Amino acid sequence: MSLTKQRVSYFYHPEVGHFYYGPSHPMKPHRLKLAHHLILSYGLYKQMECYRPHPATPGEITKFHSEDYVNFLSRINPDNLKQFTQQMQRFNAGDMTDCPVFDGLMEFAQLYTGASLDGAIKLNNNETDIAINWTGGLHHAKKSEASGFCYINDIVLAILELLKVHARVLYIDIDIHHGDGVEEAFYCTDRVMTFSLHKYGDFFPGTGHIKDVGAKEGTGYSVNAPLTSGMTDKAYEDIFKPVMDKIMEIFRPGAIVLQCGADSLTGDRLGCFNLSLKGHAECVKYVKSFHVPTLVLGGGGYTIRNVARCWAYETSVLLDQPIPNKIPFNDYFEYYAPDYELHLTPEPRENMNTEASLEAVRVELLQQLQELQGAPSVQMQEVPPEFDLKKEEAYAEGMNDGGAEDDIRDGGNGKTSKGYGDGTRRAHSAELYDGEKDQ
Ligand code: V1D
Ligand code: CA
Fold first, then answer.
1. Is any atom of ligand 1 closer than 6 Å to the C-beta of 180?
2. Could you tell me which of 4, 98, 307, 352 has the fewest CB atoms within 10 Å of its CB?
3. How many domains does the chain have?
4. How many Cα atoms sit within 13 Å of 220 on the Cβ side?
5. Residue 34 forms part of a structural domain
6. Atom 17, ligand 1: which residue's CA is nearest?
7. 58 contacts: CB under 8 Å, gap ≥ 6
8. H/E run at residue 173
9. Is 335 part of a structural domain of the chain?
C-alpha cells in the first residue's frame, strides 16, 4: 500500500445517457449525463484519467450470464416483441415488469458493463488506485433474469475480473435496495464478502434479512443490514463504520467494489431514507481511507438532480478536491433551481429506526463477523491454481500471519490494511478523453 495520493480513473461513454426506459419509468439514464456534466463543470476531469470504455462483448457477458439470456437481450427490440412472448416471461422483461424492452437495451447494458470491466482491469493492472463508473452498479440482474431495472450485472462481472488477481474481494452496497444479484452470485464462496445496507420490509426486492449470512463455503460472508425509513446521516454512519472496521480486520480484501446507489438520499422519488450528500459520501470517504484498490459504481437514484449532485460530490471526495457549494454553469444548470446549490438538507421527519433497533443490527453483525475470525477458511484461504499473481504476492495477500510487518497503517486514522497484489494483465485499449465536452 502506498500512502501517496491515490490515482483516480474515470470511465464514461458519451452515448450511455441517451437511452430511454419509457415515459412513466423512474429509471432515467439521462441522469448520467447530468452527473457527467456537473463533474466536468466543476473541473474535476483535470485531476483524473478519463476514459471512453469499450462496450462489453457477449463473450465477456456470458462469463456470468447464460447464453440463452444474452441471446435474448441481443435480439429483442420494441418492434419484434410478439415473437418473444414466452421468453419475455422467462427472462422477466417487458412492459408488465420493472424491466421494459426499449430501443438499444442491449447496447445500453454493454456500455455500462464495459465501463465496469475496464475499471476492474485498470485496477488489476495496478494502473490506478480508484476506478469510477457512475453508469454501472446494476445490482439486481441475475444469471438468466432481468430484475429491478437491471439487465446485465456489471458488478458480478467486474468482481469476477478482480478475482483473477485478488484472493478476496469486498462488495459494499449503499443503494437503498438490497444488492440481491451480487449476493446471490457469490453466496457460496468465501472469496467475496458482500455487505449491503438497505430498507427491509415491504420493499423491493424483499431479500437481505440479517440472518441471510451465506451458505456452504460462503457461510458468514454475506452481511446484511436491514433498516427502515428515515435513516439519518448519524444513524447510517454508526452502522457503516463499525461494521466496515470489523470486515476490514477480518476479511482483509485485496480489492473493494463500492456501489453508491443514490436512492438512499433524502428526497429520492423511490427511496425513504433521509441522508444528506455528506452522510452518503462519508461512506465513500471511509472506504477510500483504507487505501485498498477500489472500483466505485453508481446504481439507483430517481430524483435525477440529486443523483448528479451526489456523484459529482463523491468524485470530488475521491479526488480529495473540495468543490464549492454553488453549482457552476453547465448545460443542465436549470435542473438545480431554485437554490443552484450542491448540498441537500435532510427533511425534518422522524427516523423510524430506533436507537435500540440500530444497536441490535450493529451488535448482531459484529457478532457474525467475530464468529468468522476463528473459521479455518480465513487463515487458510485456498488460491486456485490458475491464480494470476506472482507467488510472493499471493502469499503476502492470502496467507499473511498477522505479524506487525503485515499491517500498514493508513495516514494517521489508526486503521490498518493489508498488502495487495498487482496484476500482470493488459488493459483494453481505451481512448483518453481530455476535457472534451459530451458529444
Ligand atoms: F414506480 C415504478 C414505475 C414504473 C415502473 C416501475 C416502478 C417501480 C418502483 N419500484 N418499481 C419498483 C420496484 N419494483 C417493485 C415491483 C413490485 N413487484 C412485484 C416488483 O416493487 C423495483 C425497484 C428497483 C430498484 C432498482 C435499484 O435502485 O436498486 C437499482 N440499483 O441499480 C440500478 C437500479
Ligand atoms: Ca443496499
1. no
2. 4
3. 1
4. 19
5. yes
6. 204
7. 70, 71, 74
8. strand 169-173
9. yes
- Among 433, 302, 322, CA closest to 312: 322
CA of 203 to the centre of ligand 1 (A): 9
Domain containing 154 — which CATH number? 3.40.800.20
Catalytic residue among 36, 54, 65, 140: 140
Tell me, yes or no, if 140 is annotated catalytic: yes
* pLDDT tier at 2, thresholds 50, 70, 90: low
Query: What is the residue with the minimal CA distance to atom 1 of ligand 1?
Result: 26
Cell numbers that stand for 64 in this block? 456470468
Can you tell me the distance from the alpha carbon of 156 to that of 73, in angstroms, rounded to the nearest whole number?
18
The pTM score is 0.89
Q: Is 179 a pocket residue for ligand 1 (Cβ < 6 Å)?
A: no
Residue 435, in any domain of the structure: no
Residue 13 Cα to ligand 1 midpoint, Å, equals: 25
∠ CA(73), CA(308), CA(44), 5° rounding? 110
Return the ligand number nearest the Cα of 208.
2
Set of cell numbers at residue 148:
429491478
For residue 144, the enclosing domain spans 8-375+392-418
Ligand 1 atom closest to Cα of residue 137: 32
- Residue 383 falls within a domain, yes or no? no
Q: Confidence class of residue 1 from pLDDT cuts 50, 70 and 90?
A: low
b/e 32-41 (16+ beta carbons within 10 angstroms → b) = bbbbbbbbbb
Identify the CA nearest to 280 among candidates 220, 225, 343.
343
Q: For the CA atoms of 400, 402, 404, 408, what is the dihedral angle to 10 degrees?
A: 70
